[in-house]
Amino acid sequence: MESSRVRAVLFKNEQHPTDAHQILISPNITKEELLHLASEQLGISAKKIFSETGLLLNSLNSISDGTTFYISQGENFQVKSSSSPQKTSKKYVICLLGAAAVGKSAITLRYVSNKFVRDYDPTIEDYYTKNVVIDNEPTVISILDTAGMEDYSPLVDDWIDNKDGFILVYSVELPDSLTRLRFFRDKILHRYQRQGNKGPVTVMAANKIDIPNRNVSAEEGRKVAEELDMKQFEVSAATGQGIDDVFADIIRVLRSRRVVQKKENKESWFKKACSLL
Questions:
Q1: pLDDT tens digits, residue range 185-225?
Q2: C-alpha separations of 112 from 20, 137, 159, 273 in Å
Q3: Which residue intervals define the domain KHA in the entry (predicted)?
Q4: Which of 240, 255, 272, 267 is nearest to 141 (CA)?
Q5: What is the pLDDT of residues 125-140, one digit of tens each?
């Protein structure tokens, strides 16, 4: 992944937009190029681009990471300010890492669209976005699906940067894929070594538990999870078993940290105020 590329979020210009499409683009992309990409991503004839505030964009300045655009087929701005999921929902970025052929893309597509894709072209990197309500709280989850081939190992450092959570995926068909998780875990620990509990949440997911004869037992997976200090989930992209639980657990842990941090900040402010009396 080129470090100069940024993420942009596209919505159709509707009163209550809910279907977010996240793409990687150059920060210096032209309006015409963005309209072309938006037409492909949203399946419409894109003619106008609006900002989150409803401003019609006749040209694009340098785009920052995470910028949201509303795409029109020619009609005026339709979005009601209270309906934008970007304004009412907390956003988290989760990355899937693991060896090739463990089912990272299948897990992602099962979670995002509730579909199982058995034959999928090898991924280098793809971003997906899902708007979901977890424990009655609206949440936007941005998911980075990555390659597992050894050829793409140099990209891992870029993939792990600026993420809220990681799902380290292995297949119960492939014992080597479980061993491979140590490499990804070490990379994450090195990148976030000074952040402690403020760093990303990392869990393990054993995929393909629906197969009749597995080569990695649940106990073997749990043992590695304990060694690497991670929670272990058993999932099946084919049936959907356990998929929602993995993402929901990460979000709940991140939320709990947010609550603790707010409490600590409040207590710190109170102690500082008292010391000045």
A1: 999 999 998 776 678 999 999 999 999 999 999 999 999 99
A2: 11, 18, 20, 47
A3: 7-89
A4: 255
A5: 788 888 888 888 889 8
